[in-house]
What we know:
Layout: H1 2-31, E1 35-50, E2 55-69, H2 87-116, E3 118-126, H3 131-135, E4 142-146, E5 149-150, H4 156-168, E6 175-181, E7 184-190, E8 193-197, E9 200-204, E10 207-212, H5 216-244, H6 254-267, H7 269-287, H8 295-308, H9 314-341
Antiparallel strand pairs: 1-2, 3-10, 4-5, 4-6, 6-7, 8-9
Helix pairs in contact: 1-2, 1-6, 1-7, 2-5, 2-7, 2-8, 5-7, 6-7
Amino acid sequence: MFITTILLALIFLSIIVMIHELGHFLVxxxxxxxxxxxxxxxxxxxxxxxxxxxxxxxxxxxxGGYVKFRGEDEESSDPRAFRNAKVxxxxxxxxxxxxxxxxxxxxxxxxxxxxxxxxxxxxxxxxPDSPAYHAGLEPGDRFVSLEGTDLSALTSGxxxxxxxxxxxxxxxxxxxxIIDRNGSLHTLTVTPKLVEEDxxxxxxxxxxxxxxxxxxxxxxxxxxxxxxxMLVNMIELLGGLFFKGQGVGDITGxxxxxxxxxxxxxxxxxQIITLGIVITANLGLINLIPFPALDGGRLVLLLIEGLRGxxxxxxxxxxxxxxxxxxxxxxxxxxxxxxxxxx
Length: 343
């Protein structure tokens, strides 16, 4: 099982990295920049395939990947070299990787919505002999109000979150509910009960939310919106991490990701896709951080070049990215140590 989990995690991460690098690669091709190598993974080469002009390789360590452009970190007389391309073309190439991660997140959201649907503030199933059963809730009842909170003005996701929150925080107090049953409004009172599961205690009333499956275009629109909301939340979390030190203990590396992939695999394919959404969106966003060796760092240097009207010395830029790369590797080692031993 452990070997299977590792293999699944490697495939999982390789696909996400490949999509990221594919963004760089395809845009470079479209604007005429020469790509010498397209690599998935780092370290010693395991496999290589020589294309018409690009070498495609698979490397040992599944901790990243890259596209090697001619003249990216050194001077070149080739007119198709990276450094000889216009600034806007290079910025487009660098930006394409993170953008592809966001596109992948939206695509995975769309797949989930069309395959499993999304939860709506409606009763799908009532558990026999539960508080919801005794209060008179029936399948098809749609929540309109809960404890005076108007749910009709909220999105489905917001309404579901409000319902869950009020039940979990009820401390067993009776909850007044207004539901829409076949067009007629009914007021019910339900008293949550305390249950214990897997060592955790919480309040519930004993029903399962209904789900709704959107059409293709609705799913795409909802996916784009959900991806945007998730990115905003991630930016807030990163802001808290960098400026307040919040969430430092939650940072995880390859070992932690393997662990999470294993848990998701046991939970089901929908959980694997959910984890994929989070990881690919994180990868895209983190790569936009203005730090050397990351895409964001390269974009900052390109912006400086555009403002100066002349390129930064290739050797100096190479040193900047080298230092950044070393720092990132050291950070990766520290995080991996934490994942394995904890501290």
